[in-house]
Amino acid sequence: MGGNDIIRIEGLSKSYDSAETLRGVEKKGKAPVYVLKGINLRIEQGEFHIFLGWSGCGKSTLLNIIAGFVEKTTGQVAVDQEEVTKPGVDRGVVFQNADSAIFPWITVWKNVEYGLKIRKIPKEEREVIVKRCISLVGLDGHEKKYPHELSGGMKQRVQIARSMANNPKILLMDEPFGALDAQTRRLMQNELIKIWQESRKTILFVTHDIQEAVYLGQKISILSRSPDARIMETLDVNFPYPRNLASSETTALIQYIQGFFEIEYTI
Ligand SMILES: Nc1ncnc2c1ncn2[C@@H]1O[C@H](COP(=O)(O)OP(=O)(O)O)[C@@H](O)[C@H]1O
Ligand SMILES: [Mg+2]
Questions:
Q1: Ligand 1 proximity of 227 Cβ (cutoff 6 Å)
Q2: Is the shortest distance between the CB of 59 and ligand 1 below 6 Å?
Q3: Which residues of 250-266 are buried (b: 16+ CB within 10 A; e: fewer)?
Q4: Contact 59, 100 (CB under 8 A)
Q5: Mean pLDDT of the chain
Q6: Does residue 166 line the site of ligand 1, with CB under 6 A?
Q7: Minimum-distance ligand to the CA of 175?
Q8: Facing residues of 112 across strands?
Q9: Is the pTM of this model over 0.90?
């Protein structure tokens, strides 16, 4: 194990008891149907790591296992050398659907402050942290607004600020910009790159969008289809930020990744 690994996954498999079939593959006798099978991965401290795969391949399952929301079936998942058994403040989660993640009945400020209050952080300290996190995601001036007064992009900013307020080591993001229009999505991607560069958090980011993966990721793990989804390859992407998706290098990388999906997803 490398000295800087923050996440170590070995031989991870997951089968849902209720999963009788996956993509038309029937459960034979008592043999379980695995969504994920034999996942091995190491993620370094500070890495911006993308999980890329089409709908239903098990990306959310994988992220939720790392978050501690979903129990694995076999294998090991360790964060900072410690086996994951439950959620923790070291892992902040940002979901695709902000509406089910932030509280509609309290203001932006109170949403961001919520976790700190639960953790009984003193008021003066909370104020400093909340102010800093709201500013980090560009929501200055919107503190007193309620979620229904915010756009989709702003709600995602609230989710990110709320996660950052707990100062997690790892940010787990499940298709966080999937529901946004194209321009807002690009804006948020740029903001996230900035937040990552300033905070040096480890970010695990799930997407089914190849362009988004190549725009953001330092590493891109490409998942195969379920059942038995595995990581087909983890790519190192060393292009500097901000990236130009029209450059010959990025176009070549996008084509290379498309190649995986053409083989895997047309069978
Ligand atoms: N709680 C669950 N019970 C049974 N099957 C599930 C459950 N959650 C997800 N699955 C199945 O596992 C597979 C992967 O789902 P998911 O991790 O949500 O994929 P993705 O996020 O890549 O779209 C899907 O076939 C889905 O139907
Ligand atoms: Mg998903």
A1: no
A2: yes
A3: beebbeebeebbeebee
A4: no
A5: 93
A6: no
A7: 2
A8: none
A9: yes
Ligand 1 within 6 A of CB of 16: yes
Ligand 2 midpoint to CA 63 (Å): 9
Sequence-distant (6+) residues with CB within 8 A of 109 are: 130, 134, 143, 144
Q: pLDDT tens-digit profile of 164-210?
A: 999 999 999 999 999 999 999 999 999 999 999 999 999 999 999 99
Handedness of CA 260, 237, 254, 95 (dihedral sign): positive
Q: Tell which residue, 61, 81, 52, has the closest CA to residue 13.
A: 61
**Do strands 21-22 and 5-14 pair parallel, antiparallel, or not at all (unpaired)?**
unpaired
Write the DSSP symbol of residue 262.
H
The Cα–Cα gap between 210 and 208 comes to 6
Cα–Cα distance between 119 and 128 in angstroms, integer? 15
Crossing angle for the helix pair 123-136 and 152-165, nearest 10 degrees? 140
